[in-house]
Structures are given as structure tokens and as C-alpha cells.
Amino acid sequence: MDYVETSGGKWELVIGLEIHAQIISNSKLFSSAPTRFGAAPNENVSFVDAALPGVLPVINSFCVDQAIKTGLGLNGCINLVSSFDRKNYFYPDLPQGYQISQYKHPLVSGGYVEIEKADGSRRKINLERIHMEQDAGKSIHDQSATKSFIDLNRAGVGLMEIVTKPDMRSAEETSVFLRKLRSILRYLGACDGNMEEGSMRADLNISLRRPGGELGIRAEIKNVNSIKFLAAAVAFETARQIEILESGGKVDQETRLFDSATGETRPMRSKEDAQDYRYFPEPDLPPLVLDPARVEAIRRTIPELPDAKAERLRRDYDLSHYDAAVIASEKEIADYYEESLKHANADDKDMAKTLSNWLLGDLFALLNKHGKSIVDSHISPKNLAELISLIKTDVISGKMAKDVLEIMWENRRRPADVVEEKGWRQITSSDEIEAVLRKVLEEHMDKVAEYRGGKEKLFGFFIGQAMQKTQGKANPATLNEILRKLLNE
Amino acid sequence: MDKEFSSAEITKCFLDRMAKYVHWNAFITVCEESALRSAQLSDQKIAAGTAGALEGVPIALKDLFLSKGIRTTAGSKMLHNFIPPYESTVSQKLLDAGAVVLGKTNMDEFAMGSANITSHYGPVVNPWSRDKKLVPGGSSGGSAAAVAGHLCAAATGSDTGGSVRQPAAFSGIVGLKPTYGRCSRYGMVAFASSLDQAGPLTKTVRDAAIFLKVISGHDEKDSTSAARTTPDFESFAGKSIRGMKIGVPGEYKIAGMSEEIIDYWRKGAEILKDAGAEIVEVSLPHSKYALPAYYIIAPAEASANLARYDGVRYGFRAEGKTLKEMYENTRAEGFGDEVKRRILIGAYVLSAGYYDAYYLRALKVRKLILQDFLSAFEKVDLLLTPSTPTSAFAFGEEPKDPVTMYLNDVCTVTANMAGLPGISVPIGLDKLNRPLGLQLMAPHFQEERLIQAGDVLEKGANFPALTEVA
Q1: Which is the most buried residue in A366, B308, B317, B448, by most CB within 10 A?
Q2: In the predicted model, is pLDDT for residue A131 greater than 90?
Q3: CA of B346: how far to CAs of A347, B147, B294, in Å?
Q4: CATH class of residue range A430-487
């Protein structure tokens, strides 16, 4: 168990998350307005989104399918009857004056996400529920000293609110969970998980208790908009609450705002001014009744998810536990790897392992260097596979392949073309290599004598000389073998 | 079609009468030019043989049906400057059928009222007024007055707790509230979404049937509209009711109901009996809870439906130093007292700690009321009741406390609570020469029966036409 230890004793952190995940769909949850990111302000707004008099919501069936898919992918129970409620509050970016949400009867109950921590231990983080609701618009306060502006492009976009049980016990577990959740949502194609653009947002509920004791009073932390900030928010909040508790105080049940500039949380509103949302059933929408066949049809479209994929990579290709986990952790990496395998001899486990090494080693290093993600790689999966084939068939050496890879990144060429153009094809002919070696030994008779006298370190020197003469093109294995033979003559 | 007169002629005639009786205040907005233009178009279509079901018929729209390009106020200052960018489904269907829109009729503010005295645009006078000015009923008071006073051939209304049937009864005309879901609510300014339903106010039952057919039908823009085919309602006018069982629920004999109304109720039953129907006494035991439950559910929904009128995007705005102040000023000045009262009631019954005691309990009552009706309709085909507990009252003589005022809806709210169709048919005049109506209610989606029996009732009642008006 993870405990926080202070001079005042041991504390156990208890963390729950509420994640708002924007549903990937062409149109909004209750209107036909497009959801495209980056449109001009108020461009994606229908009469429904602007809440004109007389408009009515009509459920977007694709969004429902996406939420069902998510529920199934997260091992939840799909409720065949769910319903919508109105959550009432006034704010200019909420045109209706209420948010349509699922309060009493959510689409999905339960579910869990299995996480693996750095030490290899695994835990199940249980979910309370997943429900659908409308996103609000955006209020813009920084364009004028006296006016605020409203952009309703986001108003009405479909959200899934994923609520966990208070199952996380550390910042690590929380960020591992969020990363895993994000990965699954992206595998499912249900949410793009982009926290910077706000298409995935997490609110944290944090409390502390003595190990095994009663749950403490929690604070809700809003505005944590990256996984990186999550650890900072947890750390700050832990210290703050411990200080209060150890000095005999009580934590206020309040909503706090995380400030990414300072890494601190500050009060937003207390329980006393918590709003009364006056939830009641949405009379404009009949209950959402699902045909079990629809749920089953969606179940069949669920792709292989990260855990299953990692397991298969280990089983089929003997990849290490860690490598398989890294490849499977992001759909785009896994897609890249598997696409690459298609162009290589995938039955060859050694080939698959070499490919994984090159992907996670050299290609990742290049991506990092250029600040690119795998989908923007200048080297296609096919070209990476070809490069590995060139190594495997002794056309180039592994060492030379690193240079080829650099050039491939620069000019996006096929590796075979790079090798041809540079004349880097490996010399594999034993006769040719032997001739070069004989010349090297002739030129360094003194060193040959030293070697034979026991100075075996000089072996590397001869290899170096031969590589210099062949511009590094000699096949290293053949070179070694023939040199040994010649020196032992 | 006899073609005794053209659409342009009748439209002009109605427009002249609208000007002559402008003191009734039946219209908030008159569409003279566009009405004349569309009447001429209709005449061309009639000549070309491409006339729609209501081709060239001059009608009026209650001012909560959104009209594209024509100011739509819902009787409120809040929407005094609101020009809709789209057309309501119901009015679009009427336009598509060839109807000529004369204007937008006055109404209680946001359809909240039973006497048309809460309109920001002033009260409406009942054309039956003689020595005293009478209210036309509400909330569709402008539509009722316009039809009764021959300012249009027919009009749309909306009925949340009786707002079509009650003013129809007060004004001596026919008012029909369809089954919840029969007509689309898209483009109707919402009052209480689970209760609102559009309906026709007409001079005859047959007219109501023709009008209803035009405005009925599933609309994909309204998820609560029913996917049902629309019967040819008109063909049920004139059909025999022999063998029909008609229930008379004792619970509708409201304390304090005048003997006159009860006599007319008896007379209505006699008319139906003489036409071959069997009159059966039935019980709807939870009826007495309908009104209080209605005044919880309707305000609750209204409190949310009216939240959008915040001064931010359209409509009236009163400035303020802060956002909160702007909200408060806008809603304090933009809404009238009755609307504010209902928003407050609605917010109260939904608030934490009161939800279970009020709103949840009202929902349970609503289920029991529906259950009452379903049991009754196992025994009978239709129910017959008075439409209102009194006849129209004079201005200044209206109940001064809201709760007594709410009693106007006591006979009509039950149908809304259960989602049932109902019709009010004029039955006669009381001693003071004020119209009275009887209500028929049918099972869900059985409006045909309302037409069938309503037509019999209408013929039997021989209600006097309003010929001389003040």
C-alpha cells in the first residue's frame, strides 16, 4: 500500500476522478450542428444550440453508440433503459439555462480499468457509472476590459462523464489510470483524449484518512488539464490537507481550482454556496430504450484493447513484457508496429523483435529529437520494415542502418534507395574481405607480431583498419571470422 | 368548392373586421400585406386546380407558434422584439396546406393564465360581451375571440391545462386538444413540455377535424411526437354514435358548480343518448388531486423552459453592472407577475429538500390519474364533462387570488395530465347570455370519437351563432 508518512504518522490518500470525455462524432448530442474543432467563433451553432424559443433536442444515435462502445470497452453494464434529466443553472455559455444530462438513470453502470504500475503490480480501478451529457459553450473574458464574449461552438457537443469509485491511492495510480483510460478511449475511437484542447477533462476528488480508517472529507479539484499537472495537483492538495488535519482542523468540502502556473489549488466555491441544480426528468426526451441486439452489434465492433494486444504481442512475438506494454499503450504506436510487421516476415519472431527494438529505440529517439508523434513520422512503417529486412539479409550492417535511418528521416526515401545511392551495400564476399585483410596485415607486420605475442587487444585495431578501407561496408561477422583465421595461420 | 367568393375577398373581409374590432385586442401582430398576397396566390392555385386542404382559408396563429420573419412574442415583454428565423412545424403545415395567416393572436404571457389578462399586450375582450366586458378565457384568448367574433375562419391554440378548451367554452366555439404527441411541439414557445399540445379553435366540430388533420403527424424534430398515421378525422363527422358508451364521471360535479351547468351537462348526455349512445356513470377517483399536481408539474417544467430568457442572446435585456444584475433586471422587468409566480413555484418544488414532497409526489398523482382514465376507458368509449366550472366572468370580477383563478382549469387539466385528447363543444347560453361548453375526452389517439360524438352534440345543442357584436 502507498502511504504518505509524516512526523504525524501515516496517511492514506483516497482519490476519485470524474472525467469528461468529448464524444467523437460529426454532429452534436442533440443537434445537427458540426463539432469540428477550430471553426470560427459561433460558426457551429444551430437554433437548438442557441436555445431559441421552441427548439427541441433530438438524440444523436451515433453518440449513443459511441457511449455504449465505451461502456463495453470499460467492462461496464449497459442499461437498456436510461433517461435524461435537466440540470438547472444560469450561465451565459449555457444557453438553455440547463444542461441535459443523465442523472438518475445513466447509460452505463459499473465497469473497471486495470492498471499496471511501474513496479509491475496490477490493480483494478472500479467505475461508478458513465453517462451522456451536453458540453457548455465557452466564455471569453480576456479580449476586453469591460465585456465578456461567448462562443457556442462547443455548446451541445456530446460528452461522456466517466465517474470512478474512490479507488486510487497515489498520484502514480491516478496518472497511470488516466493514461490507460485515455488509451482505451482512443482505441475505441470514442474520444480523442486531447487534454490540451479540452476534449478530455478530469476533476479530482481527494481526501485523506488514517490507513484503513473512515473516509475523510474530500475536496474537488477542477481545471487539471494535463496528466503532467495531475501529480502536481495531488501533491499540493495532499500537503494542504495533511497540514490542516495534523493541526487538528477539518478539511472543507469545497470545490478548488488548480492553477497550472503556480501548481497550487485555491478555493472556487464552498459547500455553502454549492448550487442547487434542481434536477428533474427532461420532458422533451423520452427514455432511451435500447434493443439488446444493438448492444450486441456494437460489442462485435470493439477492437482489441491495449491489454489484450500487449498479451498477444508477448505470446506471438516473444516481445518483452515492457516492450509489448509500450507498443500497446497507444493505438497509433501499435498500429505502426503492426503495419510494419505486415511488410516484414512476421512469422520470424526474431524479425518482430528486431522491429520492436528499432521502433522503440532508434525511431522513438528520432521522433523525440524532432518533437513529432508517431503519426507524423517521416519514416513509414513499410520503410522501417524494409530497413530491418536489409539488416537481416546482410545488405547493410546494423551500424550502417542507423545512418540510413537518419537519411530516411531527412528525405523520406526508401532504405534500399538510400543504400544504393550512397553505395553502402555491405561487402559480404569472403574473397574480397580476405584480400582487404591481407593488405591490412601486410601493412602492419609489426602489430601482427605483437598480436601473436599475446597482445590480443590488437584484434580490434585490424578490424578498424579493414573497415576504414571498405568505408565500413564489410560485413562484420565475415570480417571477424576471416581475420581470426588469418591471424591463426 | 362553390367558389362563391375568392380567398382575396374573404381575407379582405376578415382584415376589415379585424380593424373594426381592434378594441377586442385579439391580435398582437396583424399581417395584412402578406395575408393579401398569399390569398391571391391561393386564388391562383384554386383556379389552377392545385389547392391544398386549407387553400385560401384565412386563419390566425396564437402568438407562441414561431413564424419565420414575423415577430412572435408569446404575450411577453421578454420577446417584444423577437423575430424568429424559423417556422414552427404546426404553422408550416398550415402554410403548406394553403392557409392564409392573418396575424398573431393575443394570449396570456407564456400561456400562463385562464382569462387572457396576463398578456403584456393587454387583455382581450370576449365578443359575447354585452353590458359588461367579459374575458375570453385563456390562455388562447386572442384566438378564441378572433374565431368567435368572426375575425378569422379558425385559429391555432395551445393547451397545457385547458388553454384551448376553456377559452373555446367561454367564447362559444369549438376547441380541440389532441393526444399528447399527435402534433409536433417544434417551434412552439414551450410552457410545460410534458403537457403542451397544439390544437385548433374553430366554429364547428367539422372544421376542427379538417384543421386537426392538417397539423397532425410525426415530426423528427420533436422526439415526443408520435409515429402514427393521421386518420381522416372529417369523415367521422356525421357518423352514427349508436352503441357507443359514454361515461359521466361524478367527480366533475365540482363544489359550487352552478345548477345551470349541471343542467346543460344532463342535456348533453340526453342528446348523445337520443342519438343511440349509452350513458354510463363512471368514477375517476383521483380527479381532485389533478389540479394541485398540475400546479406543481407545469411550473416545475416552466421554471426550466423559461431559463433561456436571460437577456444574453435575443429578446429583452435590461442592463446591469454585473452579469448577475443583468440577469436579475432582465427577468424582473421582462416577465409579468404570473410568470414570475410560476417560475418561483417551479424552482421551489424542484429544490433540494422539497423535490420528493412536491414534484415526485405530483408525478405519482399523475400516474394515478392516468390509471383512473385507463380503467374508465375499459368500460366506456368517451367521457362527458362540463368544460369549465363557470361561464366567462367580467373584467374586474375575476378571482383575485391565484388559486381560485387556477380553478378555471379544473375540468380540463386531467386530460393534459393523462395525455388524452379532449374537445369542448358549445352547449348553450346561461341566464346572463354567456356561452357554456361541454367537454368530451377520448382514449389516446382516438380523436375520431371526439369528432363523431362532438358533431352529434353540436347538432343537438343548436348553439346560437353570434350575430350582433359590440
Answers
A1: B308
A2: yes
A3: 69, 33, 11
A4: mainly alpha
